[in-house]
Design goal:
Layout: E1 3-7, E2 13-17, H1 21-27, H2 29-40, H3 45-54, E3 62-66, H4 74-81, E4 86-91, H5 94-107, E5 112-116, E6 130-136, H6 145-155, E7 156-168, H7 174-182, H8 193-198, E8 203-207, H9 211-214, E9 217-224
Bound molecules: S-adenosylmethionine.
Amino acid sequence: MTGCTKRWKSGPLRQIPEFTWKNVQMNSYDPFSLIYDPAISWLYRKHRVYAAHSLRLDLGSHVLVPGCGTGLDFEFLSPAVGPEGRVVGIDFSRGMLKRAEHRVRRKKWRNVQLKEGDARELDSMDLPPFDRILFFLTLSVLPDWHSIFMKAWERLEDGGRCVIFDVHASRRVPQSWVVESVARADVSRRTWEPLLELAPDAQHEQIAGSPHIHGGDLHFCVGTKG
Ligand SMILES: C[S@@+](CC[C@H](N)C(=O)[O-])C[C@H]1O[C@@H](n2cnc3c(N)ncnc32)[C@H](O)[C@@H]1O
């Protein structure tokens, strides 16, 4: 992560993120983490089940989850990949990751690893190979989302599957502005398009949902590399 280091009076060297608007935006998830699970978990549960199912997980699959947040997807990923498999969640927000860590410890998911980091640096992160990627409510939020998608796609093994689930508003309603300001999302992004272009078998669908609840329509895309 770009930034300067500062020595605190007690404790080890701590990384201070560079002060940029994008970093401030990403850190806004720290306070949001306090209410994230009660606010969001019920709303997208069935979509998480569908996304995990569409990844066609096998025992031993290795799943990358950029912007994993509090780890709400893990309960559908961890048991499906089994002890030989691996789920790696990356997130920029310490607050969100703390909740994810708590969840992983409580559920005793030994195959889940969490990494604090900026997904913009996915190309240079020291990560194992992956055969599955899940972007769930993430590409509408990440800065430089297209470049992050490409970096993750580069890391996906041939034959690996990628799933994108996100909100997109072709016509804004009041709830679109609420979602954009609370979740720091940009609901104008057509997040499924890069996958549609790259995966020969990609399938895109609009899922039933109300823009007055989600801030836009729900879009789902799945595709295989190579
Ligand atoms: C709307 S939340 C989605 C969380 C999770 N995928 C879910 O489905 O509940 C978006 C997440 O992206 C994370 N995020 C934002 N910018 C990031 C970045 N540059 N690198 C990694 N994570 C980032 C936020 O901290 C937040 O946890």
